[in-house]
């Protein structure tokens, strides 16, 4: 990191910190701090806010001094971790200071957008009406589709349709879109703009006759066949809110693009020959310069890493380097610079936010360095854990069944009166357009005891049902279910790879908790003489009445 960039960053952080300290000092003139950690105060207001924000399940169950000390200790530990991280230079590592810098720019740039740019992007009723008419959005078409993996599959289905097969039946059987399958291919009414986002070219939407199936149309890496079965005309009011939002977004993008270009011009943003020459060897130098600062090669390389850019041209080709920086660095940089010139970073709320955000990133990096990076779990330990706790890696007994979910108890009962239990309930549900729950490859729904929480009535009925007998209707989240139990699957071990992944995650978590405890204990011992707690101020900050309101209740 070059000297200028370091000084700029330090100056900005110092300004934010000074503003925060000033705000605390002004509001706490008559209230000494609850604690001092190496000279850093922890105020009563800060402690009360922290205690109130702790999630109920994480609050201490104790009362009195023990509860007060528990809340305070967390804030003390936070300061100890920050101090240790700074002492060993984690805040000076490229990945950390660049992330802090980018986070700062994003926050300030968003303030500038909200206050200075967005008010320029107002959308009027005339704008909406003009856009609606210009893009012929009054015409809507009821779209049905069959989505498949390959063009060859689409062509095969196209031949079946040409031979007289039912579009709805083939969609229910083959489409990869589960919602469309449940509705027999029906997507819904779409306008020109919506159809384009769904992979339907405007020329197809405009000119394909009703009832005619399209040629295979690409949708990402897949293909779909599209058919329109009904047309209708709508008024602008039916789309006013949606169009207002979309037009506002477009105007904001346009306003921001112009402002970024103007600010870049005014700042004299340019690529330097010195930085361009240094970049391939990753030597540190100013890569981009502008009136109030510069972007170093060190920062640029970290941004490349953040965006996972690995192409050689990003280090060698000036056009590629300039284009990437213009897209990934310049907008936030110039808008944040404008925000600072407007003094937004000196406002107390903004200053406090920036300091806390910097600290959170530093804490995260310190935890990674001191805890996560020092934890390893070998394969032998994973296997021993699985062998010692087989019950944790066992798939419980399952009940597999076919079902039909009707929208009302009356319709469900009427259907039950006409069925024998030998029918294909899934096919019947598809034919009637009823909702379908996700099924296995064999076409059955399978549940186990964990499903008793979201489906208590259905699970009890499944347990009591005889195999092959039609049961129901039973009320579920989706409607009223008729079902036939096909088989019961006994409990079985979890697939080995899945079990190993879960076991490893558990062991890593346990090891990190132990390592974190050791680290915190060592910090408390190292800095014990620099911690000064005021018992009087602690009691005043967290009175018994407040502590009682925070105790978890059964």
Essential attributes:
about 550 residues, globular, single chain, 4-stranded antiparallel β-sheet, about 55% helix, alpha+beta
Q: Could you describe the 3D structure shown?
A:
By secondary structure, this protein is α+β, with helices and mostly antiparallel strands. The protein is built from 24 helices and 16 strands. The strands form five sheets. A four-stranded antiparallel β-sheet has the order 4-3-6-5. It has a four-stranded antiparallel β-sheet with strand order 12-11-14-13, with helices on both faces. It has a three-stranded antiparallel β-sheet with strand order 2-1-16. Strand 13 (470-475) and strand 14 form a beta hairpin. Helix 4 packs antiparallel against helix 17. Residues 1-29 have low confidence and may be disordered.
Biggest pleated-sheet summary: 4 strands, antiparallel
Helix content: 55-70%
Find the structural class using helix and strand composition: alpha+beta
Radius of gyration from the alpha-carbon trace, in angstroms: 32 Å
The pLDDT mean sits at 91
Shape: globular
Cα end-to-end separation: 54 Å
Number of strands: 16
Question: How are the SSEs placed, and which strands pair?
Answer:
Layout: H1 3-27, E1 35-37, E2 40-42, H2 44-53, H3 64-87, H4 94-117, H5 125-134, E3 139-148, H6 151-162, H7 167-174, H8 178-182, E4 186-190, H9 192-197, H10 202-207, E5 217-219, E6 222-233, H11 240-267, E7 270-271, H12 273-278, E8 286-290, E9 293-296, H13 297-306, H14 313-316, H15 318-328, H16 330-341, H17 348-370, H18 379-388, E10 394-395, E11 398-406, H19 409-418, H20 425-432, E12 445-448, H21 456-464, E13 470-475, E14 480-489, E15 492-493, H22 496-526, E16 531-533, H23 535-541, H24 544-550
Antiparallel strand pairs: 1-2, 1-16, 3-4, 3-6, 5-6, 7-8, 8-9, 10-15, 11-12, 11-14, 13-14
Helix pairs in contact: 1-17, 2-23, 3-17, 4-13, 4-16, 4-17, 5-11, 11-16, 18-22
């Amino acid at each position: 990191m070059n000297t200028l960039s370091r000084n700029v960053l330090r100056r900005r952080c110092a300004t934010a910190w000074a503003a925060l300290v000033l705000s605390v000092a002004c509001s706490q003139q008559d209230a000494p701090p609850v604690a001092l950690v190496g000279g850093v105060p922890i105020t009563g207001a800060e402690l009360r806010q922290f205690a109130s924000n702790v999630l109920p399940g994480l609050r201490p169950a104790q009362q009195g001094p023990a509860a007060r000390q528990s809340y305070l200790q967390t804030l003390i530990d936070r300061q100890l971790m920050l101090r240790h991280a700074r002492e060993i230079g984690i805040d000076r590592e490229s990945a950390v200071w660049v992330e802090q810098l980018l986070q700062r720019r994003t926050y300030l740039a968003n303030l500038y957008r909200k206050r200075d740019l967005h008010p320029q992007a107002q959308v009027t009723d005339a704008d909406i009406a003009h856009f609606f008419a210009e893009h012929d959005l009054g015409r809507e078409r009821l779209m049905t589709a069959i989505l498949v993996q390959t063009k060859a599959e689409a062509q095969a289905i196209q031949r079946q349709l040409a031979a007289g097969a039912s579009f709805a039946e083939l969609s229910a059987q083959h489409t990869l879109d589960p919602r469309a399958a449940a509705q027999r291919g029906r997507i819904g009414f779409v306008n020109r703009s919506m159809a384009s986002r769904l992979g339907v070219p405007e020329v197809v939407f405009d000119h394909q006759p009703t009832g005619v199936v399209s040629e295979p149309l690409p949708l990402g890496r897949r293909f779909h066949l599209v058919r329109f079965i009904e047309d209708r005309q709508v008024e602008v009011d039916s789309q006013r809110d949606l169009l207002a939002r979309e037009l506002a977004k477009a105007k904001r993008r346009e306003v921001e693009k112009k402002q970024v270009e103007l600010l870049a011009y005014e700042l004299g943003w340019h690529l330097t020959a010195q930085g361009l020459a240094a970049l391939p060897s990753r030597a540190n130098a100013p890569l981009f310069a502008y009136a109030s600062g510069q972007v170093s090669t060190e920062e640029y390389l970290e941004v490349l890493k953040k965006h996972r850019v690995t192409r050689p041209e990003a280090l060698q080709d000036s056009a590629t380097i300039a284009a990437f920086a213009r897209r990934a660095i310049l907008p936030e940089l110039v808008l944040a610079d404008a925000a600072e010139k407007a003094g937004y970073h000196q406002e107390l709320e903004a200053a406090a936010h920036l300091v806390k955000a910097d600290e959170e990133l530093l804490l995260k990096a310190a935890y990674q360095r001191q805890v996560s990076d020092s934890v390893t779990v070998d394969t032998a330990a994973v296997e021993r854990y699985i062998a010692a706790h087989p019950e944790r890696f066992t798939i419980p007994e399952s009940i597999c069944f076919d079902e039909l979910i009707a929208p009302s108890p009356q319709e469900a009962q009427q259907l039950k009166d006409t069925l024998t239990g030998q029918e294909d309930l899934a096919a019947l549900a598809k034919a009637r357009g009823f909702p379908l729950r996700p099924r296995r490859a064999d076409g059955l729904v399978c549940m186990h005891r964990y499903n008793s929480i979201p489906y208590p009535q259905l699970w009890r009925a499944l347990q009591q049902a005889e195999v092959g007998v039609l049961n129901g209707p039973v009320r579920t989240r989706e409607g009223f279910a008729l079902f036939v139990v096909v088989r019961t699957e006994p409990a079985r071990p979890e697939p080995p790879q899945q079990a190993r992944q879960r076991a490893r995650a558990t062991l890593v978590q346990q090891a990190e908790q132990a390592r974190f405890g050791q680290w915190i204990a060592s910090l408390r011992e190292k800095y014990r003489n620099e911690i000064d707690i005021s018992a009087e101020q602690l009691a005043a900050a967290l009175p018994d009445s407040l502590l009682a309101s925070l105790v978890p209740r059964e």
